[in-house]
Write a structure and sequence with these properties.
The protein has 365 residues and is of the alpha+beta class. The chain has helices at 38-48, 115-122, 138-151, 192-204, 232-241, 262-265, 340-362; strands spanning 5-6, 11-16, 22-28, 35-37, 65-69, 71-73, 80-83, 88-93, 156-164, 167-168, 211-218, 246-251, 269-271, 277-279, 287-288, 291-292, 297-303, 313-316, 322-325. 23% of the residues lie in helices and 24% in strands.
């Protein structure tokens, strides 16, 4: 299997399977001298790990990260690790996989999953949780994203869930401080009880539901990106689209731009008090012509409903038999909830990559 890497200069290769011994990544191209703590990576992994509430899969994984290479300990504080410029290898060992939960669907294609397409392409598939197609692989991306955040000085990347099924937040209630104080990563505290009731009904009905997530990056240097085949928004979209179950991505006002006029869509400019250019709006989501404007970079992505459900759905076997499939095991009724830190990581990696590309080409940032 090829294509397990992404990025140009800040390049990440992930490895491992959902029900194998572990998962992890190798980060190549990270500059030397970046200082971080293992706890920095762990904090992001803890946002994503399973079993934290009744609204996610009850698989219990500590998701403890191990830094295997590419760093030296600080002489005055051994908790601080310093990158050496060589490949950084991160590993997360699996501890609570139950392969037997998947024995009944060994030869059955689960609708909505990659079972059929994997078998068609490779002639073999890992039926134990989907192998490489499992969302478990994304923990490695989150670990890489924690390092990426350290590469760009002043970069802050935050994500939130803005819609679950038909339920949408009220943007006037947006409060970043409440995002990590509820199990849905909702920036609107008033929606938490409604999300709970809604998702409980979905689970009771042995069903699942999708979600829309939003990632906002501030401190993005103006000028990073490229105008044609390496646009910043292009690579952000590519990274977000590579996340399991993502079916749509938009930058800034996205598809809304098709519904309004040019006057409404234009991000008008004026000179600020210090003589710098100021934008009066941010419909472009912080990117024009593939290059960052210096405004917040805004990206949204849509996650489809979890394909593993207890309700029987029609399918076929590898031998061509018509069957009904019920997927046993421990699954998220809304996989979009745990995708918030994954989206943050992919945006952070893309920005770090373009930051290094820009510095390499122009000698400045």
């Amino acid at each position: 299997m090829s294509y397990n890497s992404f990025g140009h200069l800040f390049r990440v290769t992930t490895w491992g399977e959902s029900h194998g011994k572990g998962i992890g990544c190798v980060i190549d191209g990270c500059p030397p001298g970046i200082r971080f703590k293992v706890s920095d990576i762990q904090a992001d992994l803890d946002k994503r790990k399973p079993g934290q509430s009744r609204h996610t899969t009850q698989r219990k994984e500590a998701d403890e990260v191990n830094v295997l290479s590419g760093v030296l300990e600080d002489e005055t504080d051994p908790e601080i690790l310093i990158t050496t410029g060589t490949p950084i290898s991160l590993a997360i060992w699996n501890t609570d996989q139950r392969s037997k939960d998947y024995s009944e669907i060994k030869d059955r294609y689960r609708p909505g999953h990659a079972d059929y397409t994997y078998d068609t392409k490779y002639g073999i598939r890992d039926y134990r949780g989907g192998g490489r197609s499992s969302a478990r692989e994304t923990a490695a991306r989150v670990a890489a994203g924690a390092i990426a955040r350290k590469v760009v000085p002043g970069l802050v990347v935050r994500g939130a869930l803005v819609q679950m099924g038909t339920k949408k937040i009220n943007r006037e209630n947006w409060d970043w401080d409440v995002v990590h104080k509820n199990p849905f990563f909702s920036p609107d505290a008033s929606m938490v009880p409604e999300f709970e009731t809604y998702l409980d009904d979905i689970r009771t009905g042995q069903n699942s539901v999708g979600a829309v997530l939003e990632v906002v990056a501030t401190g993005v240097p103006a000028g990073i990106g490229a105008p044609v085949y390496a646009k910043l928004d292009q690579d952000i979209c590519s990274g977000l689209m590579s996340i399991n179950a993502v079916k749509g991505v938009e930058i800034g006002n996205g598809f809304e731009a098709a519904e309004i006029t040019g006057v409404e869509n234009a991000d008008e400019m004026r000179l600020g008090k210090d003589g710098d250019i100021e934008f009066l709006s941010n419909n472009a989501g912080g990117i024009l012509g593939g290059i960052a404007t210096g405004q917040p970079v805004v990206a949204r992505f849509a996650i489809k409903p979890t394909s593993s459900i207890l309700t029987a759905v029609k399918s076929v076997t590898a031998k061509g038999e018509e069957v009904d499939v019920r997927t046993k095991g421990r699954h998220d009724p809304c996989v979009g909830i745990r995708a918030v830190p994954i989206g943050e990581a992919m945006v952070a990696c893309a920005i770090a990559d373009h930051y290094l590309l820009h510095r390499g080409q122009t000698g400045r940032v």
